[in-house]
Design a protein that fits this description.
The protein is of the alpha+beta class. Helices cover about 25% and strands about 30% of the residues. The chain has seven helices and 18 strands. The strands form four sheets. A seven-stranded antiparallel beta sheet has the order 12-18-17-16-15-14-13. It has a four-stranded antiparallel beta sheet with strand order 2-3-4-9, with no helix packed on it. Helix 1 packs across helix 7. The longest helix has about 30 residues. It is elongated.
């Protein structure tokens, strides 16, 4: 099951370009996106109402999209406005239209009741285009359920074992001071690793030669968004005091480094996911090589996670009812999935009236 009344990231802005039809499946629904001549975004059901041929394989016209199979033409509202060889169009000839907005370099589509679409509810990812930050990202097509990715990001003890070459070391599993806090809308995990060796990526980014006080503030916002505030200061630089504003804190830290890892985890189907992510930093802003280095380091890390997700999914498919053992480090991911389930139940109750 998926939460329908929510905004989902469907594409990077550069994926939907002028004079081009773009198709993608979200929550099991095929979508076609395009830009009108004045640049306005349109998102429609990617399935001609006549014989269900995918509209993204058609042609853009002045009116909208012409289906490649029999020439049915649809305008930006999804209404069929022309059928070749006849003067009238049946009243029911239309496809579904979706609210769509472009924000923070991502294109967002509302998958539920259009009357409830509120652009102010789009989750904040301003680090992607904020001039005080530099960011680079991409998308992975993962053959696994999206909840596995959420769980991975809410429990970072795995960094010690999967990512020792980049962002992990023993401290992330053995020396973390962890607290978890949940609300009706989100879950935040706060992790501190005090007076610990910096991992390899942090040495490359910050040039650390001594131990550091390192933080990982992980925020999950339902249904599928995870934002991480991560960084480090040399031990003795009052890191805890300077980060008292937690996830909302911004501003350069002098001798330290501060980054955001940004994740939008969009389900395609129950077993496939469009995983949008980016790494942002607010230091070395005039050095593009720093942005590239950080992206490459995290991309290598996420490729390791990608393999884990798909192997997990294969194991689950073979034994879907096999029990799982939980430990205290799982608190964040357990609360996140519990929150997601609660919102799914609330939506289902509302639909039943």
């Amino acid at each position: 099951m998926f939460l329908r009344n929510a905004w989902y990231v469907v594409a990077w802005d550069q994926e939907v370009i002028a004079d081009h039809l773009f198709g993608r499946i979200v929550l099991g629904e095929p979508l076609v996106l395009y830009r009108t001549r004045d640049g306005r975004l349109v998102a429609l059901e990617d399935r001609c109402c006549h014989r269900h041929y995918p509209l993204h394989k058609g042609t853009l016209t002045e009116d909208g999209i012409q289906c490649r199979y029999h020439g049915f033409t649809y305008d930006g509202t999804g209404t069929c406005v022309r059928i070749p060889g006849q003067s009238s169009v049946p009243g029911g000839a239309r496809v579904k239209s979706y609210p769509v907005v472009e924000r923070h370099r991502w294109i967002w589509v509302w998958m539920g009741d259009p009357a409830r679409a509120d652009a102010s509810k789009v989750v904040d990812f301003h680090w992607l285009d904020d001039p005080r930050w530099r960011a680079k990202g991409t998308m992975f097509y993962v053959k696994a359920n999206y909840e596995l990715i959420i769980e991975n990001l809410l429990d970072l003890t795995h960094l010690t074992f999967l990512h020792q070459a980049t962002i992990g070391n023993s401290a992330t599993a053995e020396r973390a001071d962890v607290t978890t806090h949940g609300t009706h809308d989100d879950v935040t995990v706060t992790r501190w690793m005090m007076d610990s060796p910096p991992p390899p990526t942090y040495v490359k980014a910050g040039g650390f030669t001594t131990n550091v006080d390192r933080w990982q503030f992980i925020n999950f916002t339902a249904p599928c968004f995870v934002r991480l505030d991560v960084g480090a200061l040399p031990t003795g630089q009052a890191a805890r005091h300077r980060k008292t504003a937690a996830f909302a804190a911004e501003g350069q830290l002098g001798e330290g480094i501060e980054m955001r890892n940004l994740n939008a985890i969009t389900p395609e189907t129950d077993k496939t996911t469009h995983y949008f992510w980016a790494q942002a930093h607010n230091f070395l802003l005039d050095e593009p090589q720093a942005t590239e280095m950080l992206f490459e380091q995290i991309e290598a890390t996420f490729h390791e996670d990608w393999e884990v997700f798909e192997n997990q999914q294969r194991s689950i498919d073979l034994a879907p009812d096999a029990p799982r053992v939980n430990v205290p480090a799982d608190a964040g991911q357990i609360q996140a999935i519990r929150l997601l389930r609660k919102k799914l139940e609330e939506e289902a109750r509302a639909a039943r009236g």
